[in-house]
Amino acid sequence: MPKQDTDAPMLQLRDVSKIYPGTVALYKANLSVRRGEVHGIIGKNGAGKSTLVDIIAGIIEPTEGEIIVGDKKYTTLSRIAAKREQIAVVTQEPQVILDLTVAENLFLGDFGERRMIVNWQELYAKADQVIAKANLKIDARSKAGDLSMSERQLLLVLKACYVEDARIVMLDEASASLSQDDERLLHRIIAERKREGNTVIIISHRTDELLAVCDRVTVVRDGRTLGSQDCSRLNKETLSSLIVGEGFQLKDVFGGLDSTKVKSNQVLLSVENLTRVGAFQNISLTLRKGEILGLAGLRGSGRTEFLKGVAGIEPAEEGTVAIGNLKTRFSSPSQALKSGIVYLPEDREHEGLIKSLTVRDNLSLNALSRVSKRYIINKSSERKFTSDVVEALGIKVASIDQEVNQLSGGNKQKVVVGRISAAEPQVFLLDEPTRGVDISAKESILTIIKERLSAAAGVIITSPGLDDLMMICDRVLVLYKGKIISEFDRSEFNEGDLFLALQGGTKSQKAAG
Amino acid sequence: MSLKLRMELLLLDNLIWVIVAIFFLFNLLFTENFASYDNLINIVFHSSILGLLVLAEGLILIIGHLDLSIDATLAFAPGLAMLLAMRWIHGGIDPVTTILITLAIGALVGLFNGYLIAKVGVNPFLQTLSMEIMLRGLVLFLVPLSIFPLSRIYTYAGAGRIVGNIPAAIIVMLAAYAIFHLIIQYTTYGRNYLATGGNPKASFIAGIDTRRMVISAFVIAGILAAVAGLLTAGRQGSVSNTMGTGMVMYAFAGAILGGCSLNGGKGTPLGMLGGTILLGMISNSLTLLGVDVTLVSATQGALIFLAIILDRGRERARNHLLHQEQVKKLALEPGQQAQQAG
Predict the structure, then answer these.
(1) Deepest in the core among A108, A296, A301, A373, taking most CB within 10 A?
(2) Using DSSP, how many helices (H) and how many strands (E) does chain A show?
(3) What H or E segment, with its residue span, contains residue A16?
């Protein structure tokens, strides 16, 4: 056992790839994490971070490459092998059982029972010790459901670090739901693990956190790893530029269109001080006819919640939404639809499609009044109408009577886009319209948005990455923790600045408009 | 899509009618007296009341809920209406109004169920379970002894015959199925109804008033149960407190056999009709075959069980067929695949 050698790698990935039919999630990724090191992994959404984490945790099987833990070589780490190698993962959404007590959650899987009888007194005493060790102030006998989100997350960190005593602890965006005090606690626990010679891997969006806590950081970009850097030699700007990459240019297809476009001054939608406690606060914005407005923000920044608030799906509590002559706050999507607002859900499979119905049924759902007379659907005009939509949007179907579930992701998304545009609304709220679709479908969906949807209406669009927004938006608002913190006009688009703003930083050139 | 695949899908989607046909042929060969005109008419006649309940339950299942209270509504609606018409109101009420009152009572029961389920958020199982128990109790209290005789206007639909010796009850049932088939297939309401059942969340977001759809489903079920109640009362010439007892279980069986799913979104009136006919044929042929009366119920249960297993295999076969079709398609475009992976 080369225990004294602290430079010896604890965990290595060599040329690991994960290829799905049609997409490459990770390509020849390399990673080397030393014993007693705090190692950060950072990258944009969809860069391949979570694939990397899942491979190390033994949740998914790599297509090729090898994983070396200590001195053992694996081509695939199963969940059981990962457990045996003492690799623990703390995920973003705390996976605790709400009806069990804190102690039961901590020791779940191994209650230290003898002949199936648990010594509860001993268990609670042990739990108290663990909690005391972390300087936490929670009762081992209280239900996990009574804890705050932040405390639940810490509970899992304690389980991984103290109960399982894992050699490698991976924190997958674990600090996202932590309060400030708890974040400090987490950082102390991390430092302590490091002193004891254990390894911690932190996956995060947040550059400042990684720079403060990690020894080294590995950047993942477009499914490739860029090599590890010492944190002492990086600052927020250099790290951000590594994450973003140099080669990014606005696509000409979209860039050219814009300068010639005459923007109307007609305000379609104006939102004033819209608030839903815990989701978004005091959001005000205006949307003009023909404008594409981007809402950028990290996960949990409140972008989805805001759009759902405007559309009345999860109604806002304060503030107003003005459209046409109406100044109100919608309390149901059917009201919003009547006033000309439609919402495209980010969760296409569960909130966008009616999978048991055909392509035709899905496409005509929001346009039934146009293909019917006195509530009776005219089947032939419905067929013609949906065939036209299929053709116009380039949806690949065998027949319009095909079940919508048989389509590919991109075509499913086009069906949802087709459905909502058939409602001929004034305002489109598009929540991650390019989520989970391949590159070519992504481009054609963005083109549809640019050329069709925004022609007679206003569009508000969100996206997990900045690329989409920079390609088609006239203006981008950055949301951070439920508030708008800055605004960029198309002329000011710069991925580096935008990326910094996503992290909560302000624009370098001038204050937020 | 090839013609062969289309035929295969058509057969699978209408599997219940295939089962009905097989069972029919089986009985044609092995059951004496089965194939006579009178017996066949008899099967449909005896299925007509259950058929209305199957339709009611099936429509509720399509929208993604369930209703345990329809067989109590079957007794309660005509029970209360006849009490009003014949005992409580001096001078009585004319028959047409009485029939309308019966339907209105069924609708009100449904409205109450639907409102509590859709607006207040009560679990449909618990809501309709308590409704079933309560209505059964009320019927027992209100109608401790049968009310009879009923005037011919009430008994005609349940017991009367039209040309060809065809019972009027069959016409009532078939008319109900036809109406709902048309509503589901050809109206905007029907489309929104199917969408709500298929994915309530997506439908809500798409701007459909899904709560109103659910309430309307329970109202429809209540009305259909009341119609079934009128037929029952008409057939036996009286209103009794035991009408419809236990029928809700058969209503579920018929609807599930007809292609409905407890998860909602599936099923058609045509399929439900097939389920109803199958149930009717099973009990008829067991009687004709001379199966011991005490064993009829158990045998019926076993046969329903068999049919349901067969029906679940259908879903798999269907997915398998569609999957193979996709694989075939991918094999045809190898160039595109390689491009995407690279």
Answers:
(1) A296
(2) 18, 22
(3) strand A9-20
- Whether B206 shows a pLDDT value over 80: the answer reads yes
The dihedral built from the CA positions of residue A103, A184, A234 and A494, taken in this order, carries a sign that is positive
3-class secondary structure, A73: strand
pLDDT digits (tens, 9 = 90+) for A376-408: 999 999 999 999 999 988 888 878 888 888 777
Query: pTM above the 0.80 mark?
Result: no
Closest CB to B326 among A352, A354, A406: A406
- The tens digit of pLDDT for each residue in A337-346 reads 999 999 999 8
What is the distance in angstroms between the Cα of B305 and the nearest Cα belonging to chain A?
25
User: Which residues, listed in sequence order, are joined to residue A202 by a DSSP beta bridge?
Assistant: A40, A171
Collect all residues with Cβ–Cβ distance below 8 Å to A110 and sequence separation of at least 6. none
CB-CB under 8 Å, A354 with B195: yes
CB atoms within 10 A of CB B149: 11
pLDDT digits (tens, 9 = 90+) for A46-79: 678 888 888 998 888 888 889 998 888 888 888 8
Beta bridge partners of A29: A16
C-alpha distance from A31 to closest chain B C-alpha (Å): 23
Residue A428's alpha-carbon distances to A282, A293, B239, in angstroms, are 21, 10, 58
Q: Write the Ramachandran bin of A335: left for phi over 0, alpha for psi from -120 to 50, otherwise beta.
A: alpha
B241, B76 contact by CB (below 8 A): no
d(CA A177, CA A187): 14
Q: Does ipTM exceed 0.90?
A: no
Cα separation of A355 and A406, whole Å? 9
End-to-end CA distance of chain B: 29
CA A159 to chain centre: 25
Cβ(B266)–Cβ(B62) below 8 Å:
yes
Contacts of B1 in chain A (CB under 8 A): 398-399, 402
Strands (E), A315-368: 318-323, 326-328, 341-344
- 3-class secondary structure, A359: helix
Distance of CA B258 to the CA centre of its chain: 9
